[in-house]
# Entry
Amino acid sequence: MKTFEHYTSKTFEEASELLKQGKNVVVAGGTDLFGTMSKAILPEYPEAVIDLKEISEGEGIKDNGGTIEIGALTKLADVVDSQIILKKAPAMAQAAHSVATSIVRNTGTVGGNVCQDVRCWYYRYPHEGGGRFLCQRKGGAECYAVHGDNRYHSIFGGMKAGITPCTRECPAGTDIPAYMEKLRAGDYDGAAEIIMEVNPMPMITSRICPHPCQDKCNQLGNGDCVNIHAVERSMGDYILADIGKFYPAPKTETGKKLAVIGAGPSGLTCAYFMRKQGHSVTVIDKMEKAGGVLMYGIPHYRLPKHYVDDFVAALEGMGVKFDLGKTVGADISMDAIISGYDSVYLATGAWKQPILGIDGENLTMFGLDFLVEVNKYLKKVAQFGNNVLVCGGGNVAMDVALTAVRLGAKNVTLVCLEKESEMPATSEEIERAKEEGVTIINSRGLSKVVEKNGKVIGLETKACTSVFDENRRFSPKYDEADKTIIEADSIILATGQRVDLDFLGNKYAEKIKSQRGLIEVNQESFKTNLPNVYGGGDAVTGPNLAVRAIAAGSAAAKHMSRDLGFPFERGVKGSEFLSCDAESVAVKESVKLKEVPLGQRSLDKEDAVSLSKEETAKEAGRCMNCGCYSVNASDITPVLIAFDADIVTTSRTIKAKELFTTKLKVSDMLEQGELVKAVIVPDMEDYETHYEKLRVRDAVDFAIVSLATAYKLKDGRFHDARIVLGGVAPVPVELGKVEKLLEGKTPTAELVKQAGELAVKGVVPLRKNQYKITQARALVERFVEGAGK
Amino acid sequence: MSSREKVEYRNIGKNLVRADAKDIVTGHATFFDDFKLKDVLYGYRLGSPYPHARITFIDTSEAEAMRGVRAVITYKNVPAPVDQWGLGLPPAIPILEQVVNYVGEAVAIIAADTKEIAMEAADLIKIEYEQLEPVYYSQDSAKPEAPQLYPVFPGNKIPDLEISGEKMMTSLHRGDVNKAFEECDIIETGTYTYDKFGSPAAIEPPGITSFIHDGRIQLYGTIQAPHTEQMFFQIKSRMPTDVKSFNVGGSFGNKSCMETTASYCSALSAATHRPVKMFLTKAEQLLVHDMRIGIYSESKVGLKDGLLHAAEGTVYLDCGAINGVGQIQLGVGLGEMQVAFGKCKNWEVHGDVVMTNHVQTASVRGFGGQEIKCAFMPLVMKAVKKADIDPLEFCINNFAQTGDGWIWRDSHWYDCKEQDYSHVMRTSGEKFGWKDKWKGWYVPTREYGNKAVGVGVSVHGNADVGEDQAEAYVRLEGNGDVYLHNSITESGMGQASNLRKYVADVLDIDAAKVIVKGGDTTIAPYDFGPAGSCSTLTTGEAVTRAAEDARRQLLENAARNVFHCTPEELTTTDGLVYMLSAPENRVPWFGCLDAFGLTITGHGTWKSDYSKSNFCIYFSEVEVDKDTGICKLLKVLVGTDVGQIIDPATLEMQAQGGFGAAAADTGMLEESVLDEYTGHVLTSNLIDYKWRPFNEFPPFEFNVEEDHPEVSRFKAVGFGEISGAPGPASMMMAISNAIGKEFCAYPAHPRAVLAALGKA
Amino acid sequence: MDGKLIHIAINGEQYEFLVSTRKINGAIPPEETLATTLRERLNLTGTKIACGEGACGACTVLLNNRAVSSCITLTVECDGKDVVTIEGLQDPVTGELDPIQQAFIDYYAFQCGFCTPGIIMAAKGLFIKNPHPDRKEVEDALSGNMCRCISQYHALDAIMAVSEKLTNEGGIKA
# Structure
């Protein structure tokens, strides 16, 4: 073991204080802790170990008349031997006796047992074997058991142990696994609700987002990542098909007025959420149509404009007002807006061409302008050459290049600073560009435009030796000696966009414009320095993903509404356990969108067709619903839950069920420094109580399935039965429905069968643990069958 | 019962307190880790997290700079002379490689002042991999399109082996199989596997200290057979090697060589010029130390008149990522088939040793025979079921007897000599109550509630009991002390102690008077070690002959110097020499020697002979809970005939020992669980790797007989190697009978049982 | 809590140790286990380390008369306690073996012997608590002691013989 400080506490309070300081752990019996530490299974190692064994008040079994108090530091061996427990709560003694081995019971304590960590063999894999597994329970991403050997894992599903990588990578924080789960259950409305909690326009984002959510999908360890954006697209289409249902007008009006400046993704999102809350919302934009970059900056073949129109119509249907073709600062003054509305959201985007300062720059076209023009007219109005050179390595550059191809340019070349692996464009877009004949030249920087008689004939480039510095910051280095000329008759620069805040006028710009020329906001609340004025989207961040702008619109709306006195309520809740579909999860290949064949692609038609409902369901099935699929290891806990015991901690008394089943880990339920001091078990002498444990060996092994039961038999009828399964889910499972079924009934053969069926209703086994269902069922059936015998 | 007369010996056949008994019960016995060597450094291996990967980047500079770190070795800087060594058989794999082939395979080895420092340093090594596609099963690995592990082994197949003039048999060709199948009245085919890579996992983990010094290699370790280790190392290193062993805390063949760990220690010693010790943790032992081989068999068998008449098929021996002794195990296993089915003269079994991205394998008790038998016996029994023959009768009628024979692993034919085990099979069946318990094929013995009980039987025999050479010196001291020099170690079987009896009975003294000096190649002559149950016969006879040689010299001296008669007129008892005709006039040994201080040394040897097999019959009674799939062994009976019992208590414990070390319990409990998703073996501790605990031992009966075959002076045949080998197949049969349908899934995990019942 | 002095009685002798996280010569670091202290500092190597996580029983010693795994017991946590190891069972004066040790010899109750000290210590712990255990109780008390050679049958016989003998003689001394 690596070294640590060691403290011996004489009281719980002292230990509690020590526990609050630094990365400290407590040791009760040590039967689990020291093995865990010497095998280095956890990435974190404690700074100090606090020994509780010397806390004298912590040990002992007391009959308090009606209840039995068992100190947390009572040894399991003493529970086994206790006459009080044998008489008044025998299942407790049976459970204690079933723990591990005699030697372990001599040291292991009740408190240690109920707080112990899981025995999952991935979680426990020793560091010396080939390195520990950083599973989700340890702060990593994946539960290896989902694809791996899960014979001892949960049959009731998993529990979230942290934010899954897809959700973490999604700027909007979409709970992707949750809506996938709803889809698997056939609940499209439920799935839609989850998406729309954070993103009102999945029909749009699914088409344009570079979907970083997919990049770290845990399915990549098995095969393709889950094709999240394709599933989201189906959801978007589904939502759009029923606007009345998904974009309802608010039932009540708050009387508050909001102005949104900029009808792009961020502004529209903010408008949606604010309107949903019942505020009066007006969206102001200088363009003729709403949508901003969605309408003007993204080619039709990626996002047909009817989606934007339909979405905007949906917002109008909710009562959002649009004031279009109005330029703030020219047609309406900022003063008028600020005085006329309770809140203002600035989301004007990044539309300005940056000046590179190279010779002949005036002869080039600005990529965004190019796209706007084509999007407006579906053709290039001004002169457009045959040899088009696009500069830039991002997705806008790809859009420009492909648009040029589809406009009929003979040769389209793209030049960028980055190596292919470093290009900010998604690999799919790069592939598509190549497929359609775009020549990509990597690692070249712009030197100057070569002209002849005021006409572009090419671009001089220089070698780019590196793009980023050691801190991964953009800091290109060039080899000025290595210059070449790329021939071209049109040069389009897609090397970035800038934010233009001229509309604010000096008075306001002074207050809210940052040194970098962006709107300065509080990162959390999206408030600017002006009262009641908020900002978000590209105008705040500089050019970025649409979904990040959406995330800002959504988050800003929530703060604005709260500040107006109308906070949002927390929305949809997931089911108790996470489920996944074992067979579907094993499928390595994703369902892909059907692409239009190469020769048939055009400027104005979408390149791909949405998935069918069946395909969507199939792909949603591949989502692993990442969480922790291990099972509770404690034998004592199920009994405590069955007995409805109280747990006394250093700060409160809490019901066993609440402490042990609410969250994945007991430690997550305890506050910092909080320690379990004792368990209070009611006198169960009137009850029949029992603990049954199935395992391969009658010692050492943890439960494959265990069952804690307590019941009374009145005139041969069940009364107040308590049935708790252990070893079948991340936390013990109380079979409430079976308990209800049994109430007042005699244990007939029919009842036995019903109870068994009900006990395992809704199980979601993994690939190798179906047998545990049979076992769980057998235990419950045997319990009912054996009642009174 | 026995056909030959039993002789009462003074020592042999009686229980003898082991020489080390008191040391063991008081904690004073010295095991490897109890032995302290000066200036020793501690070695640690950093293991690959991937089953198959190429190292694309490795930077050890931070680890090297750490205080207390003395050497960090990767594939880039293996020091001489170890850079010339190879792992495996043939030794063709460099000890560290750029491409790793199993999870936990060393990518760097570190020597440091403490193990903790070495482990901490390992975490500082920066390393990047390119993952390669792994292959885990021999039947996949043998396919042409399979990922390839080593360029030197194309097709992932290990070439045939010729070692010291012996050509190892990897395929078995006998008789005319095609014709024979035409004559058969029952034919069955099937694919069976025994591939859970059980870990023998002696309680004491393996450990080695290596010191390369003055042109010699000195190895200290948990070494079962010092001379085998020496032989392997001298072949590998072409350097003189001394090997010293201690009390070995269990071996089961699995501490015969430990060549990977020993090679790592040697490399670190070469780099640091200091002794380097690696004492594996239990986790390392369960994850990266040599495992049992796996077997995949796709075969066809035919019965004629109740006898196995023809067998053909393909057997893949899965040797994992490094082949320890696969070719030899295949040869022994194919040989043992001919022992159990001694009447079958037609065989066409193609065998291959195939590599997979699974941990390395090596020698383990059972040595090919257990594994092949576990995969083959269920198929034969399927045919026996079809013929509706009582399996016990089948075993009795088919086991090899005098007049039968086999091609053994060295590709030579051996006539079976001095062998008829039918008697002990019948008495064992009677003691087990087979007649009452056997209700017919796939019929439970009894049922109650949802539980059903079934019985099963299987047999095993191994001609390795005469395996390889052994040599011993017996030195008589004037004061009556007798020293036995032989390199056998004490690893649990009591052999070192029991060898005293052979010497003592030759010299007619108490066995306790004999002092055994072994476990060290510098003081004892060659002995192959207690592999294949051989030492009872081989070492026993070498020791006997050495004692006889010493006795002859003693009596010649006494005849010449004292009694002035012929040596034949003399005898010796309790350290005294006398004339048979005048027993009252006795002269102590010192009086008989040529001069004061001189001693007499006798020399004895044994040379390989594979003409006799040992025997084990295994009866199991298993209860199956048909609701939960949980199986319990209710009763076990093991029967054998050992020719002559040397030590009843240790023999019985050898029989009982058949549960352990991934032997019989691979039928019910033990397996190394390989995760196909990550390539990791998940059973890294004694909770997940399931040994049988104290409270789960079923009633055990041992039926042992003594037939006194003319194989050696004392007529004893060893047993321990095979004592668990037939167990797993007997348990599969028992479960099949309990649940009413064929069941063969090692081990009988509830999951497999419920699946067979259609309930999972 | 650096530089703490602790007192442990080991096999009847009082020992004083300095526990410190600093590298003081001879000081015990807090993470040192009892098994290591016994083996490396006191040369009491009869206590074996095999699994290092309390699953095999080879390191069993008595701590205040209870059988515990010394490989997962910190030395610092034994302050003020009594430890008995396999070496402490033999009568220090007469050299007489504990009845359990003697029974293990008489019943040939070991093979390689690596697990034997732990088994004997676990049995000792049982006898202190229950002088007349029946076979099931013995099996249960030894459920944490693993033996790979399979000496269990003989060990159980040996322990049962002690139990029966003690039943006749009226108990075992602690």
User: Anything to note?
Assistant: The radius of gyration of chain A is 32 Å. Chain A touches chain C at residues 1-8, 27, 30-31, 33-35, 37-39, 49, 51, 53, 77, 100-104, 106-107, 698-700 (CB under 8 Å).
